[in-house]
Each structure stands twice: as C-alpha cells, then as structure tokens.
Design goal:
CATH architecture of the largest domain: 2-Layer Sandwich
Radius of gyration: 21 Å
Number of strands: 18
Shape: globular
Structural class: alpha+beta
Number of helices: 9
CATH topology of the largest domain: D-amino Acid Aminotransferase, Chain A, domain 1
Largest sheet: 8 strands, antiparallel
Helix content: 25-40%
Distance between the termini: 44 Å
CATH class of the largest domain: Alpha Beta
Length: 368
C-alpha cells in the first residue's frame, strides 16, 4: 500500500484535462506528489480504495459541503481552499453592499466587508438592478468605474463605464437571475495598472510567502491576456515576507493582502494556497491608488512558480529566497529555455499553440 496518493478533483468537463490549463494542473499535481513522496493517480474517481491517504489538487475552490463529502477537512488535505458559500469563490466577496439593508446571499458577512474596506478600491457588490444603479451613480461621482461579472476570469466579463448613460445601458442587459444569484461588482477604474501577486502557501511542514508582478501577453487572436508571474518567494509566512527589504509599492501590497487574508476568518476559510491580486494605478483624477482586486484559493497562474519554489526549498535547507517565474506564451515558433520545467507545449483545442513553463531565476542563502 502506498504512503499516500495525490489526486485531482475536476469540476469541469473531462475534456478540460486535455487543454493547456488542465495539463498544467496535472503537471503541478505530479510535482506535489514527488514533494510528498506520494503516488500520483489523476482524477480521484479513478483511484483504488487501497490508495492510502489522499491529497487533493482541485481545479477550483471547494465548497465546504463538497469538501466534507470527499473527506477533506484540513489544510493538510489539499492544495487549494475551502469556503462556506458560492459567492466567497468569486469577486463578489471583495466589496461591501450599497447599504446595510441591501439584498445579499445567505451567509454574507458585513464584518468581513468592514475589515477589508481600506484595502480594496472604492466599490460595491450589488445583487439587484436598482442597487447596482445606485452604486454606479455614487462611484461615477469619483470618476470612471469598472463593472465586473464576479465569476468571470482572465479579464473577461468586465466593462469600463464613464457615464450614468453607459452604466444604465449595461445594467439593462444583465440577466436578472444571474444578478440575483451571483451579483455585480462595481469599483473605481484605474489607468496604467500594475497587478501584483501576493501569496502564502503551505505544503506539509513548509510554508512560503511571496510577492511579485503579473505579466501580460498577446494570445493567438491578438488579445491581451495573462502571460505569467515573476515571484520572489521566502520561507515562512507574511511576517517573513514583510521582514524583507521591499519597494514601497510592494510593501503596500503585502500589507493590503495580509489584512484581506486575516479578514477571511470571518468566513472560516480553510486554505493551503492563498493568492491575492493587488492592482496599483491612477484613478480618473490622477490620484494613485492600490487595492486588492480579488483572492484565489485554487491552483492558478502563479501555482507552477509556487511549486517550483517549494521544490528548491525542499532540496536545500540553506536557501531562504527563491526568484521564480511562471510563463504562458502563445505562437507556433516558440521554445522554452533549456532549464525550464515545461507544463504544456502543443496545440490547445481552443487557444491554439501554447507554451507554459516555470523557471527558477535565482536563489539566496542565509550566509549571504
């Protein structure tokens, strides 16, 4: 009997595992299995009953009821996170309501919204058309705003609104059931945005934290999409990261991410992987702003870099800092660096030719 087995929990159709995102999750799960000295068995529904202890790598944040059904109880059971309600999986959780009496889904925490108010951009989450209209008009007094569909990812489902007329036109198009169930996020729009990645990851007895920046690239259709993240990872949690010499922008982002992360206790979130996107740019008046855009408790674009850092730390206990990148690039005539770990290199059925890899760019030891 094996010591244990790493398995996937896939909420999307089986064909997902053939695409670049699915193949990258499989690659990450294999690396985690090596780190834990476990077997790797793919999707959990194919696993033998004698596979020993199971460690899950889900493709999405799990709801508590689903985690309970799988026997997932604690941080040690998965690479990802568990939340109590569906809206906590989405961007909807990142802003408060227009007023305390506003419509909200079951389980909504006013205390959480109060705790994060100063570390997110000015904004609201609305679950009715009237409240969305009120929120939009209030925010438009401060400048251009951005409307976000909470469940959309990769910059999709977002609209920039510069007037009440534009806001009303968008709101008129929204599906009532979608709005009531999942809400709409409205926040100040930033120009010249830099998106910083902040995170904390725990695997067995090792905890790391990181800061870094996201990169954008052009996909095979010429659209601007996520192109990867460049991270600086340290042993330890948020305190270890804050102890590092950080540029002012990074220091602000780390503080904001930590406040948001601490506030998640209001929802009882259980997560071994905690990732926060912090946007920094200028609003319509030219004022510099910084705020948490969203949180992720599932395998994401930065995960290949996170796991690469965990592997370096596991190999050499004297290393305290790892500089590492995850890269997503598009096109037929591209090749990875010789020392990269390739997660996908081929033709995706939807995206076309794609290359995804992680690359360790440098390390620092205690004696330096």
């Amino acid at each position: 009997m094996p010591r244990g087995t790493v398995v996937l929990h896939v909420s999307r159709p089986p064909s997902f595992l053939d695409r670049h995102e699915g193949q990258t999750i499989c690659s990450v799960a294999r690396s985690i299995a090596r780190l834990k000295d476990f077997d790797y068995a793919g999707p959990h529904d194919r696993v033998r009953l004698d596979a020993g202890s199971l460690f899950f790598v889900p493709d999405d944040t799990l709801l508590r009821r689903d985690a309970d059904a799988l026997g997932i109880r604690e941080v040690k059971d998965l690479y990802g996170g568990i939340v109590p309600f569906p809206f906590v999986q989405t961007k909807a959780v990142s802003h408060g309501l227009i007023d305390p009496a506003a419509a909200r889904p079951e389980g909504w925490s006013l205390a959480f919204a109060e705790r994060i108010e100063d570390v997110v951009l000015p904004g609201f989450t609305a679950f009715t058309r009237d409240e969305a209209r009120r929120g939009a008009r209030s925010l438009l007094e401060q400048g251009t705003i951005r409307a976000k569909q909470p469940r959309a990812a990769g910059g999709n489902g977002q609209h920039t609104l510069a007037s009440v007329r534009e806001a009303d036109a968008l709101l008129a198009q929204l599906d009532e059931d979608e709005l009531t169930t999942h809400g709409l996020v409205l926040e100040l729009h930033l120009d010249g945005v830099t998106t910083l990645s902040l995170g904390r990851v725990t695997l067995d007895d090792t905890t790391i934290a990181y800061h870094g920046r996201q990169r954008m690239t052009r996909d095979n259709s010429g659209h601007c999409v996520y192109g990867g993240s460049d991270l600086t990872c340290v042993r330890g949690g948020w305190s270890a990261l804050e102890a590092r010499p950080l540029a002012p922008a990074a220091k602000t982002a780390v503080r904001q991410a930590r406040v948001y992360d601490d506030a998640m206790s209001e929802y009882g979130v259980v997560a071994s992987r905690r990732n926060y996107d912090v946007g920094q740019g200028a609003d319509s008046s030219g004022r510099s702003r910084s705020g948490v855009f969203e949180a992720s408790w599932r395998v994401g674009g930065a995960t290949p870099a996170e796991v690469a850092a965990l592997e370096v730390f596991a190999r050499d206990s004297s290393i305290d800092v790892v500089h590492v990148s995850s890269v997503e690039t598009y096109g037929a005539d591209i090749a990875p660096p010789d020392d990269a770990v390739v997660h996908f290199h081929g033709v995706d059925s939807d995206a076309g030719p794609v290359l995804r890899y992680s690359l360790v760019r440098g390390t620092s030891r205690r004696d330096r």
